[in-house]
Predict the structure.
Amino acid sequence: MEDLDRAAGEFLKAIGNNSLIAFYAPMGAGKTTFTTAVCKALGVQEDAISSPTFAIVNEYRGGKGQPIYHFDFYRIERPEEALDIGLYDYLDSGDLCLMEWPENIEGLLPEETLKVNIQVNADGSRTLSWDA
């Protein structure tokens, strides 16, 4: 857990001012686990964090009161479903948007979205990579 918390802190430093973060990874690779660690690093109470699989989006408050939006597009079958929840209101807010299963709304993602790949290594560890 310590390594995960450290990785989340390092990730936040590395991404700079990027507020639109899309996590690409296979099922079970740890998207929700890592998103939880990122939210914790930003001061969100851990017991407030849960996967938004059914709600599509959860809103959290960071330690400074800032909104953080956590999306799970796994159940989205048509991009219009994301538009129905007011997707662009969230994405245009300037607040941190952490997105799981972004491939289901790929055509709706703004150009400035940071696309992060989570790779599961043979030893069970994970590697995060993205284009700066």
User: Anything to note?
Assistant: The radius of gyration is 14 Å.
